Prior knowledge:
alpha+beta, Fumarylacetoacetate hydrolase, domain 2, 6-stranded mixed sheet, 4-stranded antiparallel sheet, Fumarylacetoacetase_C_sf
Amino acid sequence: MKLICIGRNYTEHIKELENEKPSSPVLFLKPDTAILLKKQPFFIPDFSEDVHHEVEVLVKINRVGKHIDKKFAHKYYNEIGLGIDFTARDLQAQLKAKGLPWEKAKAFDGAAVVGNWLSVDTVKNVNDINFSLQNNNSIVQQGNTSHMLWKIDELIEYVSKYFTLKIGDIIFTGTPSGVGKVVANDKLKGFIEDKEMFSITVK
């Protein structure tokens, strides 16, 4: 299985990092070794002094597909979730400045939090989901999937042009504004609407 991540999918997040608005989705991958093991803390890696949280709605693929038309994309998932794309921002900036790939800053061990899953049948509209991240019981990020530049079905259509989607693959759909640095002893909790989807401690 693979983790397919979407960058720059919320306008306000693009602004806060002073990036250019893309004309098509920005794609990058994380290996399955990036997934933080259940009930394990997130350990800040020793190669970064500026790791940021990025909360994201997740989509789990439930069938194999290639060149999926947007109008059929909804058939390729029946669960959504919430997670964190941890980013070594200082390392990412160094790599971007040299025109190099981001993987060392995005795909390191533990860099992907995958929380609990919800059946799409329990969600009124996947394109109108409120979600948020708390750090030490204070909301630091909140968003709604209606604000995505490219909605979930559009992302599935786009991603499947380049990568065959397989059962168990997870799409990280992008983060809203409010990304920020984590430090030791932070307690991060993610919510879809009022449902807690994950809770982790930073070490």
